[in-house]
Amino acid sequence: MIFKKTLCILLACFLCMPIFADTRFILAEDDEEEEKSDYEKCVVDKDRAACSAIAQNTQNNIKEIEEQIANAKADHEKATALAREYAQKAQSMQAQIDKLAKEIDELKEKITVLEVQIEQNEQKVDALNSRVRSRMVQTQKTMHFNGYLEFILGSKSFADMLSRVYGVEAIVSKDQNDRVALLDVIQQLSSDKAELDEAKVTLDANYQEIVARQAELLAMQEFYEEEEARIQNELDEMTEQRDNIYESFEDLQSTLREVGVTSAGFVAAVHNSTIVATVWNYSPDFLDGRWHLGVDYAAGRGTEIHAPASGIVIRADDGCGDPGYLGSACGYWISGGGNQVYMMCEVNGKVYGIIFFHLNRVDVSYGDYLLQDDVIGTVGSSGSSTGPHCHIEMYYLGSGYLMDYVAMGWNATFSVGRGATAYNNRCYYDDGSFRQGAPCILNPEWYLP
Q1: Rg of the Cα trace of the chain?
Q2: Do residues 267 and 167 both lie within one domain?
Q3: CA triplet 20, 26, 28: central angle to 5 degrees?
Q4: How far apart (Å, rounded) are the C-alpha atoms in residues 53 and 55?
Q5: Could you report the per-residue pLDDT of 162-192, keeping only the tens digit for each?
Q6: Range(s) of the domain holding residue 102
């Protein structure tokens, strides 16, 4: 019984071996298929999803690196400003240092003069003291202990005695007065010198403090100059990295256009809509002075708005209530435009900018890569509006690759302006004849089905 069971198991395993072998082969093929990169799928297999993923990832990478570049530029400008600020402070402090150094030198000269004067007067005192001592010694030698008395008593008359007394007194008094005067001079000079020494000590301390502060400022200047250079190197590396991304993306342009990631033409933005207002004004001959730079596509509130071509969302703003009212200023960047979406797209090698106004709902955000006919949002009446519609404006930016124009940054009016300025920057006259090249504003009715 056991033998039969074992035999059946072995037979079953043998019969199943081809199936397992085939399974392993299929799995191997699946693994090989999974190992293909999005680039290979896009270029070789013309896989639209893979191409779209590449476009989206590229835009995300560009968005990230552009933000890094913007932050680095801000840091670079800050470091540059701080380096200049510290350099200016150090330079202005140099004037104080020079002034203090001059004052210290002047004090040193005054102190030197006083020291010379003090020394000279001390020498006079010493000479006077020496003279008095010499006289006293000489007197002792000739008059002994009572020499002065004998000199006075040896007078020939009373008048002679008084004269001798007054003479001795005058000599002694003059010596004493000279000595006192010299000592007063020395005391005054010493007092003046002490004041100058004290002033010099204060100036020296201030000088050392300012020199130390200047050294700190120069160190900070050097630090921010090094920081400026470091950030500039980072900026150069990031810019090169961004340019490499652009270059690699440009190599895919023909494939992206072929599979529909970039467009060969425009499709309708608002399906089943009705044009209720066109460019360039609401009234004939511009009598009311109100410029209308786009086309109004009326449709029911909530009707989907589609991307007329594959491209990149440059700005998306909501927050305005729906419905709005005529005269409402709600909307950014264009006041009164309500909830808005801005995008750039490339069609047949030409780059366009498109703005959508008065949306009820915005379904996209900055940096999204949209495929042609993707939903952007829905029709509404937000901002300055009297009924549900989508106001669309179109701008011709120039020929070339989309990414090149995205890299230039965004201007809400594509450097064309608003009102009469935009009208005077239109690409074509009303009869369709060419007026001017990019950047210029277009009539969407000529492009959107």
Answers
A1: 50
A2: no
A3: 105
A4: 5
A5: 565 555 655 666 666 766 766 776 677 777 7
A6: 77-249
